[in-house]
Amino acid sequence: MTEASADDLPLPLDTAPDDPGPAAPVTVISLTDLAGRRTAVAEEGLEQLGTDAPAATGATGATGATGAAGSAAALAAAGLHGGGAGRGLATVRLGGLADAAPGSTLTAATTTAQNPDADLDKIAVLTPPIATEEFLVAGLTWDAQDRLPTGARVFLRVLEDGEWSQWLETEAEDALDSGEARAGVKAGTDPFVTGGADAVQLQVTGDAGALPAGLELSLIPANPEPAEEVITEAPEPPAELPTEEPTATTEPAAFRSLLGDVSQPAATVAPVSLGTAVTGASSAALGPSSSTSTAAWTSGVTAAAQMAGVMPAAATVPRPTITSRAGWGADPKIMSWRPGYATLKAAVVHHTAGTNDYTPAQSASIVRGIYFFHAETRDWGDIGYNFLVDKWGRVFEGRTGSLAAPAGKMTIGAHAGGYNTGTLGISAMGDYTKVSPPREIFNSMANVIAWQFARAGIDLDTPSGITSPGTAYTPKGRGLARIFGHRDVGATTCPGNAIQSWLPSLTRAVDSQALQLFYLNNDFGPTADTQFRYGDKSAQIYVGDWDGDGVDTLAARVGRTFYISNSNTYNEPDTVIAYGRPGDDILVGDWDGNGTDTFAVRRGAIYHVRNSITSGPADQVVAYGRAGDEVLVADWDGDKRDTFGVRRGSIYFVKNSVATGVADYTVAYGRPADTVLTGDWDGDGRDTLAVRRGARYYIKNTVATGPADFEVVYGRAEDLILVGDWNGDGTDSLGVRRP
């Protein structure tokens, strides 16, 4: 099946097109100079707070002001009392500052990821509320050779639609691998996403004497251009200042979940007549009508997967709806990173920072803002994440080449420093430190990861081979699963407690979409020559040379539909046909000797034989044996035509033609409880028997009674074993299927 162009895929929501308006410069608030000394705007809030605003020369000053200077009134004057716009609490922490009674002292203590509500030692930077042009993304940057003060934390609050947010934290984002740094690259924080803010206030805690050089806050509009407007002096305050009305919670304001109101649309498929073959790799016809969803026409999806809203598979995991870089308006002029690819091993889950208050129409502009922040402001040359997901579950391509990555590969991003190579970085657009993400984010992340993992043949039951360097959450040396959070490999709380807690469920949702896993051997050795995934877990699998090239490949059957592949790789089916009824027994053979295998339907003792890979009536109908017989298919006499053999216990009744009548000969082999396979084990052109007992195989090179010609141990007792000529050398060997 071909995939629709990402640029042509519809948006899941009925929203107005993204109209970012004319290009606008980025506003940059300069907080320290090249020597790390604070600018006037960085100290203005401290002066309003009543401290002596220590200079950035190592002096600490009176950050714990007492008396009237440290009172609630002083905090209110700086806009620091309460949570802002009715979102705080009667006693509220604002980036570590708490309300204080007159005459008391604002005390402080160190902060850690384990104790985020601890009092703060000092405030290094505090701007006043600053009116700005509207921006959608904000981020703090500084000289890459420097660091924020030890234990420092960064807080922003923004004015959206006349209402101030709480103080919200954004963390330092160390996302480049070693060796990727280049001249001009800046250190910085996560992108802070807004719903269109027109005022901002910034607070940085820590030692003012240890501030980095070139500390700047960039405010990025919907349609940014490289020009900058730099602010060093405090401008006029916004008309709407933070208010001090308390509320009953300190939790960040949660946006409402839109589950039930909007959803990602079901994938649609073109109509197909079940009596007509659908052939060719470009076929998109997998269901009975153009309005039928993927979930409606594909059987065998687990109940858990259906409840999660993840997309089921048939022969391959379909690519979910993804807006390409061209679709969201990536400016190619600011992209200076050259794509590189690596074998995909794992997925790293992220979130951004911000208010979570954006609208559907703003999502593409926010992605452009994150792109500008990463590519231009931080000089990475491109966006760091491979994919981004908005709160309605819409997926956006991030890093260049992520959609075009070859199967089993992923473009190397900049999302988890030291762990970008061989991982897929996918980020939720929003802050999920304390609020749960909408289900749509979960569903879309599962779909994207399942699609890429299926292309890579990744088995989620196996370790990723990646170990943690040691973080506040994960011990050093711990092996990581195939899906893990940024906090497992970095000094961050990303992807937030809510998302981190459902990573096991995300793994199960991805696994529910995983295709069947095959290991094919070209001899009887212990190591597979070929490994790949194909076919829904519920699909029945058949082996045949469907195109006559001498190589056996797979067909996956769901109901009465066959998804036929002409190569032993993860790929879209080359041919899709409907034949027979869902409950029919299916046999595969070259019935007419033309070098191509086709299907036969068995109903009791009647066989409906088709001589082409097409839908339609049988070319031949014959009766043979009894309804309860076990039937084997083989070229018993080497005439290049497959025929039937009936097994009753350990006796085989072999027929050398597809015809009604008595057996041409009878032979005894093995035991009644044995599992029996047929194949041309020695390449002489004749198929013979092999008896399987657990993981041991007793192989006979003639259709005759007597001991086995050789024995092999292969796979596990619970494996489904397939027989085929996987490399076209004329000799059959074994393959293992593991669900």
From TrEMBL:
Family (UniProt)? Belongs to the N-acetylmuramoyl-L-alanine amidase 2 family.
Pfam families tied to this protein: Amidase_2 (PF01510)
What's a single GO BP term from this record?
Answer: peptidoglycan catabolic process
A GO MF label: N-acetylmuramoyl-L-alanine amidase activity
**The protein's name in its UniProt record:** Peptidoglycan recognition protein family domain-containing protein
InterPro entries listed in its UniProt record: Amidase/PGRP_sf (IPR036505), Amidase_domain (IPR002502), Integrin_alpha_N (IPR028994), PGRP (IPR015510), PGRP_domain_met/bac (IPR006619)
Q: Which residues form the Peptidoglycan recognition protein family domain?
A: 320-490
Positions of the N-acetylmuramoyl-L-alanine amidase domain = 336-496
Query: At the top level of its lineage, which domain of life is listed?
Result: Bacteria
Identify the stretch(es) annotated as Disordered: 1-25
The residue stretches assigned to a coiled coil in this entry are none
